[in-house]
Amino acid sequence: MLRALRWLLLVGATNNDGVSYEARIVLRDRVQEMHGHALQAYMDHGYPHDEVMPLSCEGRRWDARTRGTLDDSLGGYMMTLVDGVDTQLVVGDHAAFARTLDIITSEVSFDRDVSVSTFEATIRVLGGLLSAHYLVTEPTLRPAILRAAANSTYASPVDTRRRWARELKGLAADLGARLLPAFQTPTGIPAHRVNLRRGLLSDESRKTCAAAAGTMLLEFSRLSRLTGDRRYASVAREAVDAIWKRRSARTDLVGSTICATTGRWLTQGTGIGAGVDSFYEYLVKAALYEDDPVLLERGLAGVAAAHRGTAVRDAKKNFTWNLDVRRDDGRRISSRVSALAAFWPSLLLLSGSDVGEAQMTFQGYWDIFRRFGALPELFDLDLEAPVHFAKDAPLRPELAESALHLYLRTNDGHYLVVGRELVSALNEDSRVACGFAAIADVGSKRLDDRMDTYFFAETLKYLFLLFDLSLEPHDRKSFFCCDEHSVDRLNSTRGCAVDGRPCISLSKTLLSTEGHFFEMPAGSKAGAFGAVMPADAVAGPFAAPECDASTTTTTSRAA
C-alpha cells in the first residue's frame, strides 16, 4: 500500500514541463512493467493462439470465429508475438525478444487453409516480420541484437542473428506471395479476405473499403526491396491508384465502402475514421518511404481535402471536430466522432500542417477521454453521449500516438500529462490477472474479454516512447537514444552511440499504421518519425467553418 501511494505521489508531481523528470522515469518503467505483465499473460494462457482472452485466461481460437468479421484478423499464426516483437526490443526486454524470434522463426507457418483479412495480415503480420527483419539486420543495432541473441538456445549469437534474418525474410516473402491473389480483381482493388492456401475464393465477398484496400503500399514496397520482386509494390500501387482516381471531382474526397469488382462506391458517406483513415496516412508515408514526389503531392492534397471537408470548429471550446460527410457534395451526415480518428493530429503533423490545428484537433478527443477515463468507439456530439452500440474502448492506440507526436513536435508537457492519465486508466480500469481487458462500456467500466495485438504493437510502444524520449539520451532505455540536436555525436547517418549503447536516429525512422519500424531513405528530409516537409508542400492551411456542435449534422461544407 505504501509503495503504491509513493508511486502515485511521485508521478503526480508536476513542474513547468507537465511531469517532473523523475516521474517520467517512473512512468516509463511502469509501462515497461505493463508490457511484461501483458506478454507473460499471453505466454502463460494464450500461446500459441493469436491472442489471449484476458478475462477467461484462454487463447482465442482462430477457427472458432465467435465474433464475426472481428475475427477476420485471426489466422493461427501467433499474431500477438509477430505483431509485437519489435516492441520487446524497444522496451529493452532482450530475453523476450530472443525467445519470440526463436518461436516465430521455428513455429510460424502460413500454409494454412484459413481466410484472413488482407489488410490485417499485411499491417500486423507482414509488417511485424518486416520490422523485426529491419531491426535484426540494421548495422547500427548489431551489438544490441547480438546481446539479445545470446539468450537464444539455437547457436552462437552471430549465427543466431543470421538465422533470424534469413527466416524472417523467408516468412515475409511466403506471406506476401499468399496475399497476392487478393489483388486479382478487375479493378486491381484487393478483396477484403484471401485464403492463405487456396487464394481468392469464388464466393468471397468483393466488398471492401478504402482504408483496407489502400493501406498496403508501405509493407509491400519494403517487401519488394527485400526480395527484389517488384510485383508487391506494383499491385499495392495499382490499388492506391484505382481508389484515388475514383475520388469525387467536386470535393477531392475518396469514399469508404467500395466494390473491388466494379470500382463503384457502395455508400455515400466518408470521413477520416473507420473505412478511410489509413488510406490518407499511407499516401503520405509510402511517398516518404519511396521518396516519390508524385505520390507525396497526392498525399498532401488528400490530407488537405479530407481535413477541410470534414473539419468543424467548436468556437466555444476551441476544438476542431472531424465529422462524416457526403463524398460528392460535402454535406455533413453525422455528428459522431470516431475514436479511430484520434490518430489524425499525428498525420496533420507529418503532412506539415499547422501545429495549432493539430493541437485543436487533439483536444476534442482528449476532452471526451477525460469525461469517461476512456475513449468510446463513437461519441455523438448532439447527444453528448457515446453511441449506444459503440460504447466500448478496446485499448486503442490512436490517442497515445497523437500525444507522442505532438510532444515530439512541441515539447509541451501537457502531452506527458495525457500519457500519465492514459497509463493510470489502463492500470486502474483494464488491468486483470491475465493481461489488460478492453472496456465494454465506458460508462459502467464493464470489461470485455479481448486484448488485441495492437495493444502490444502500438499502445504500449507509444506510451513507453512518450516518456522515454522525454528523457536525456543517457537515461533512455529504447534504441532511440541519439541526441538529435548534437550533430557532433552522430557517427553515421542512421545512428550514434550513447555511453557505448547502439542507438538509431529518431529522425530516420518511419512508423507504419501498426507502429512498425521502417527506415527512411538516405538523403530524405528528417523529422520525428517522418519528414519535415518543404515550405511549399504542406497540407493546409485550413480554415474550418465554425458552428455549435449541436448543429453539425446539417452544416454544409464551405465552398
Give a quick rundown of the structure.
This protein is α+β, with helices and mostly antiparallel strands. It has helices at residues 2-12, 21-46, 79-90, 94-107, 118-137, 142-149, 157-179, 210-213, 217-227, 231-244, 277-290, 293-310, 344-350, 355-372, 398-410, 414-430, 454-468, and strands spanning 51-53, 58-60, 115-117, 193-195, 207-209, 257-259, 269-270, 311-314, 319-322, 325-326, 336-338, 378-380, 385-386, 431-432, 435-436, 438-441, 446-448, 495-498, 501-504, 509-511, 517-519.
Detailed description of the structure:
This protein is an alpha+beta fold. It contains 17 helices and 21 strands. It has a domain at 19-47 and 335-470: Glycosyltransferase (Alpha/alpha barrel). Helices cover 44% and strands 11% of the residues. The strands form 10 sheets. Strands 11-12-13 form a 3-stranded antiparallel beta sheet, with no helix packed on it. Strands 1-2 form a two-stranded antiparallel ribbon. Strands 3-4 form a two-stranded antiparallel sheet. Helix 3 (79-90) packs antiparallel against helix 4.
